[in-house]
Design brief:
Blueprint (H helix, E strand, L loop, with lengths): L2 H7 L10 E4 L4 E3 L13 H17 L1 H19 L6 E2 L14 E5 L5 H12 L4 E3 L4 H7 L4 H12 L9 E5 L6 H17 L5 E3 L6 E3 L13 H9 L6
Antiparallel strand pairs: 1-2, 3-4, 4-6, 5-6, 7-8
Helix pairs in contact: 3-7, 4-7
Length: 240
């Protein structure tokens, strides 16, 4: 059976608008290919954003982007090397001929990776990822987790206990990152190593994440674009 015939004979993975010709209480008549496999509204905003990002990178030049990342990475590695107790996790040691992307992965002694990420966010306005980054065997290898420890972690997860999920903190640099951003990151980690968290945090057992018990941060007010507001009022929307 040809692939198109096979796809036409199967129900689509996702159901939604645009994938059907007719629907009754008893059944669905799926439309023809390729629409039957593309339920819902296309990600137009995502496509436009991708094109804008590609155009920006092309204008800047990928070699300039690479040089910028290397400079920031060198600055970060230099700053992190001065922090006692902090551990950088990497497969290959730094040295000549090792060309890295702008990413650092680390752990802090006696501080859960999720707590470290929460402190960086709540107290220093720095966003990082934490966990195993979709590379669990690799990260558990770098963390030195034994087979016996991995067995206990699996058993805990089967019981719904997520507090013991292993992981690290990962910070990444881009063309929007500045040297001041890198310095702020290193300063924040130095403060965390020296003084620990300034706020009290609680761990959510359902997710393993941490959050401040009292969060005094105020979300910024985002004003709508004037042209969008004018378009909405001009179309008569919002009147019931």
């Amino acid at each position: 059976m040809a692939s198109t015939e096979l796809l036409s004979s199967c129900e689509p993975l996702l159901a939604g608008g645009g994938a059907v010709d007719f629907v009754t209480l008893d059944g669905v008549l799926w439309t023809a290919l390729p629409d039957r496999l593309e339920a819902g509204s296309p990600n137009v905003i995502g496509a436009v954003a991708l094109a804008a990002a590609a155009a920006t990178l092309e204008e800047v030049g990928m070699e300039r982007v690479a040089q910028h990342e290397r400079a920031l990475l060198d600055r970060a590695c230099s700053g992190l090397s001065e922090l006692p107790g902090l551990v950088r996790h990497q497969l290959w040691p730094d040295g000549p001929g090792v060309d890295r992307v702008g990413v650092v992965t680390l752990t802090l002694p006696r501080m859960h990776h999720a707590l470290a990420a929460a402190v960086l966010s709540a107290e220093h306005a720095i966003g990082v990822r934490h966990g195993c980054f979709c590379a669990h065997p690799y990260i558990t290898h770098l963390l030195g987790i034994s087979d016996a420890e991995a067995h206990h972690i699996r058993d805990a997860l089967r019981r719904g206990e997520r507090a013991s999920i292993p992981g690290a903190v990962r910070a990444s640099f881009s063309i929007a990152t500045t040297e001041a951003d890198v310095d702020l990151f290193c300063t924040a980690l130095a403060s965390m190593l020296r003084d620990g968290p300034a706020l009290d945090y609680a761990q959510d057992p359902a997710t393993g994440d941490f959050a401040p018990l009292v969060d005094a941060r105020v979300l910024p007010r985002i004003e709508p674009l004037p042209e969008l507001t004018a378009a909405v009022h001009g179309a008569g929307c919002g009147q019931f």
